[in-house]
Every structure is written in structure tokens, then in C-alpha cells.
Amino acid sequence: MNPLSESPSYQFPASKFSKKNTALRQWFHLLSEVLEVGWELLCGNVKGVTMETWDVKHSAETLHRIMERDGALVDVARARVLSGNHARGYYNA
User: Fold this and answer.
1) Burial class (CB in 10 A: 0-12, 13-18, 19+), 44
2) What is the DSSP string of 19-71?
3) Is residue 4 part of a domain?
């Protein structure tokens, strides 16, 4: 599979960081986005929380793309997480 191809695992287009960041550098960026969500929660800014949460998703997807680029099977991992969460009763249906 082309590491930068689209799959059901992705909601966003690939960013330029998918090609140039290391996994560790992207993880630090993801962490900074999570901290921004926390800040917006502390400020009571619903709009900010909502936007920063999308930034977290995009940053996490970029990390997945980097891991896929480096050989990880992202779609397999997604399926295993979904299956495990289903088995634990995390979903409504």
C-alpha cells in the first residue's frame, strides 16, 4: 500500500508533515495539540475545544501516516482497536 494513500482510517488529506516529520517529532506536536484542548476546556471555550479536538485528530492521523510510511499496518491496528472496544462494550449498538 502506498503509505500516503487514502484509506478508511483517514478523515483528512495528508499533510506535508507526513513526509518530513519523524514519529517522535509528530508525537510532540500531537501532545501540544492535546494541551491546547485542555487549555480551551479550562477557559470554557466550547468553540476552541471543538476546533482543537479536530487538530488533535489531524495530528494523530499524521502520526499514523508517518508510522505507515515506516511500515506499520495502520488499517490492521484500527480493526484490532475497534474489535477490542466492541468486545468491551464501548459502543451503543
Assistant:
1) exposed
2) HH--HHHHHHHHHHHHHHHHHHHHHT-HHHHHHHHHHHHHHHHHHHHHHHHTT
3) no
Gap between the Cα atoms of 26 and 30, Å rounded: 6
- The per-residue pLDDT for range 44-77, each reduced to its tens digit, is 999 999 999 999 999 999 999 999 999 999 999 9
Q: Which domain holds residue 78?
A: 19-87
How many domains is the chain built from? 1
Q: pLDDT per residue over 13-26, tens digit each?
A: 999 999 999 999 99
User: Is 3 a domain residue?
Assistant: no
Q: Residue 32's closest CA among 63, 78, 11, 70? A: 63
71 in a structural domain: yes
Cell of 76: 490492521
